[in-house]
Design brief:
Mean pLDDT: 92
Distance between the termini: 18 Å
Largest sheet: 6 strands, mixed
CATH architecture of the domain at 46-65 and 96-240: 3-Layer(aba) Sandwich
CATH superfamily of the domain at 46-65 and 96-240: P-loop containing nucleotide triphosphate hydrolases
Strand content: 25-35%
Shape: globular
CATH class of the domain at 46-65 and 96-240: Alpha Beta
Helix content: 25-40%
Order of helices and strands: EEEHEEHEHHHEHEHEE
Number of helices: 7
Structural class: alpha/beta
Length: about 240
């Protein structure tokens, strides 16, 4: 069996994401529950990095912290050279709006809106004019293979199609970093492979940096450039694949 720690991820001159000594502790009554403990790693610009591990290993907690949805108990997270802990409330809001795109397991689409409207929705908060919103949303739906489904609502779409809409929505503000939290969790194996393959293609064609949390180790190894494995809130191994 290949030794997963034999090939550490190389360190370039600058990282898209750099995590140092990260810890997250939740307080449940009188008990402290550590979700992450002294986690450190780098994500290189333009790379597709997967974070794997069993349920409860801290994967989603890590992604929420990198996405600015939660705050760390200790350590630091630097994204594109900016320390999230040093950002103001307004700075974090701008970061979540245009600095990072997020994809979730449950799609999180607006049920009353069409696919096109779901994709263009984040642009409303960015003050983008209507004609440009429509153009950008339609172009992204075309890129994810849903040009003919733009007028359909989520209930009229398959799980895979809904996730493609969610991917397009995550990209519509043109973020340099995309975070995907178990994007295949609600999909069958064939559709799951199509979705991860789509992410890999977008990584190549748009030079996106992607950090994906997944329990699908085989898919991570097939498509990602590097795999970071968490166990009990710690980095168990790092492996460069390609």
């Amino acid at each position: 069996m290949r030794n997963a720690v034999a090939e550490p991820i190389p360190q370039g001159p600058s990282a898209a994401v750099e995590v140092r000594g990260l810890a997250k502790i939740y307080r449940l009554g009188r008990v402290d529950v550590p979700a992450l403990r002294d986690v450190s790693f780098r994500v290189e610009p333009g790379s597709f990095t997967a974070v794997t591990g069993v349920s409860g290993s801290g994967k989603s907690t890590l992604l929420n912290l990198v996405g600015g949805l939660d705050t760390a108990s200790a350590g630091s997270i630097t994204v594109m050279g900016k320390d999230l802990a040093l950002m103001s409330r307004d700075g974090l809001a701008r970061y979540r709006r245009s600095g990072v795109g997020m994809i979730f397991q449950s799609f999180n689409l607006l049920s009353s809106r069409t696919a096109l409207e779901n994709v263009e929705f984040p642009l409303l908060f960015a003050g983008v004019p209507k004609a440009e919103r429509r153009e950008r949303a339609a172009s992204l739906l075309d890129q994810v293979g849903l040009a003919g489904r733009s007028r359909h609502r989520p209930i009229e779409l398959s799980g895979g199609e809904q996730q493609r809409v969610a991917i397009a929505r995550a990209l519509v503000n043109r973020p340099p970093l995309v975070l995907a939290d178990e994007p295949t969790g609600n999909l069958d194996s064939r559709t799951a492979r199509e979705i991860v393959g789509l992410l890999a293609e977008l990584n190549r064609s748009r030079e996106l940096t992607i950090l994906m949390v997944t329990h699908e180790t085989a898919l991570a190894r097939e498509f990602a450039h590097a795999v970071i494995r968490l166990h009990d809130g710690r980095v168990e191994s790092e492996e460069k694949l390609r």
